[in-house]
Amino acid sequence: MKILSAPQSGCPGLSLRQLERSDSPSWYAYLSNPDVVRHTSWNLQSETDLLPMFDALDSELSSSIRRLAIVSDLAGELIGTIGFHTVSDINRTAEIAYDLAPDYWGRGIASAVCSAVTEWSFSAFGFVRVQGTVLETNSGSARVLQKCRYRYEGLLRSYRMVRGIPGNFQLYARLNDD
Predict the structure, then answer these.
(1) Which of 2, 21, 22, 77 has its CA 20 to 30 A from that of 56?
(2) CB contact at 8 A, 114 and 121
(3) Which helix (H) or strand (E) holds 146?
(4) CB atoms < 10 A from the CB of 102, how many?
């Protein structure tokens, strides 16, 4: 689903905009780094594996995924993405997902952007609940959600396949009135 107006990033020097097909090479460049995907369920073999994501972004369905590019204003380059999948219009819920190039880790960017996008999702899309699932080994991502006032709700055993092996995921959620 195309996003007409993205929120402010919450980080000086960074902007958010609709993720575009032309971002694919930059996105894949850091997603092909084993350190980036080690604690996620990403399973990419080539840049073309991202094409279904872009096809879904082009969908007009209100339940389709929504993904924003995190862009360095100075360099004009993609440094990460953030958005929603598993969108339910009926329940007014979605799952947040984000990734960031390793050169930008440890600067508070993921927390700032996650917080800004979560707040924006409640007003722009009318979500009443946004959840995030984190592979139990991904303590960095768990900290991001905790900083953004997501509450831990439990462990989802064998929830998603992680490169062919069932992975346990921690479930965090934030409600629009939290």
Answers:
(1) 77
(2) no
(3) helix 139-147
(4) 11
Q: Which two tokens stand for residue 24?
A: 């694919």
What pLDDT digit, counting tens, does each position of 141-160 carry?
A: 999 999 999 999 999 999 99
Cα angle, residue 13 at apex, residues 8 and 16 outer, rounded to 5°: 35
- Phi then psi for residue 76, to 5 deg, are 70, 25
Taking the C-alpha atoms of 140, 145, 148 and 154 in order, what is their torsion angle to the nearest 10 degrees?
-140
Which superfamily does 14-175 belong to? Gcn5-related N-acetyltransferase (GNAT) (3.40.630.30)
- Pick the most confident of 33-37, 48-52, 155-159: 155-159
89-142 residue pLDDT tens? 999 999 999 999 999 999 999 999 999 999 999 999 999 999 999 999 999 999
What's the one-letter identity of residue 62? S
**Taking the domains of the chain in order of start, what are their residue ranges?**
14-175
What pLDDT does 98 receive?
97
Structure tokens at 67: 């993904």
Residues 12-29 have pLDDT tens digits of 999 999 999 999 999 999
What length does the chain have? 178
Checking phi first, is residue 6 left (phi over 0); if not, alpha (psi -120 to 50) or beta? Answer: beta
